[in-house]
Fold this sequence. Notes:
- The chain is α/β, with parallel strands linked by helices.
- It has a single domain (3-263), classed as TIM Barrel (Alpha-Beta Barrel), CATH 3.20.20.
- The chain has helices at residues 3-6, 15-27, 40-45, 104-112, 131-145, 161-169, 184-191, 201-215, 232-245, 270-284, 308-317, 356-366, and strands at residues 8-10, 35-38, 51-53, 61-65, 101-103, 120-124, 150-154, 174-180, 220-226, 248-253, 294-295, 301-303.
- Helix 6 runs parallel beside helix 8, helix 9 (232-245) packs parallel to helix 10 and helix 10 crosses helix 12.
Amino acid sequence: MNYQETGIAIADTDLETIHFEENLNNHAAENSPEYLKISLAAAMTLGMVPGLFYRNACLHCVNVLLTYDDGCRANCAYCGLQKSREGNYNDKSFIRVDWPAFKTEDIVKTTLAKKDVVQRICISMITHENAKEDTFTLLQNFTKNLHCPTSILLTPTILKHSDIDKFKEYGADMVTVALDCATPELFDEYRGSGVKGPHRWDKYNDTLDYSVSVFGKNKVGCHLVVGLGETEKEMVFRMQDVRNKGARSHLFSFYQEKGSKLDSHPQCPAGQFRRVQVARHIIDYDMGNAEDMKFDAQGKIVDFGIPFKDVAMIVETGTAFRTTGCPGKSEISACNRPFGDSSPRNIRSFPFELNASDISRVRKELLEY
């Protein structure tokens, strides 16, 4: 991909870049917890890879991913890490970009050197028999040695309730469950029996419920991917269910991972994502309820259930259209994942404050049916 597609530019090759490439080769066979993958955006933010972001976007959360030579055991149809995707596991992209591997100790050192920028670190688990114990080890390391709070993206399939208790005990600030799909049918089709995968809807929802009982209201997130085949109504009521549990939804617009089972599945229309973003904002900040919203025969939102002037204010501030994730000290979402679900040519989740032109665009997209 080029810069226009990813929003991330790598600087011209120099000694630092060559050293980085050598590190990638040396680390390719290494495993967690001694090594971790980090998103390309995080690597750039930490200065481990030279480069720049489109419109000077700034990442405030270091996203790290557990890594093992034999990869993830799951087979989610839309995921770049799915076990059935062709190619070497260590070469697979995830959420549109490469995830280079570095020594954990180096990640800690460089994170500390960027205290002015980094407001959070997030450990993303994968479905692997070693992931639970390694996450405990990493969490204790980060809690002891870093300046910022730690979040965990959980893999419910390999966890018990007592493990959630342990994450809290060991210092996790927040946890997130990647439910992703709005309905149990889509979950089973894309993450469960439909792809011979290990994940089960009931297990994920149970983990979400229990996590809120341990961490408290507004301290648990739920990833949801818009555009997997659900209607806007189905997604709205899923977000309301998440909110009723005491958690908040973190939205992604579906984007095709090349080589995945859904690499030919179209991205949802912009209007669909914009309306769901507004509905999420209303629901998550307790401004309204899904029960009061109205939908047309195709399940598209035609009334947000609150006064028009309030909807207009939400649109004009632009906050609803920014990336949703675990918060930082000064940011709505420290985990703002620059261009993680779209190219800069067609931004879905804005990783920065919207300008007047952005607001004008999303206002028009909201009305696209």
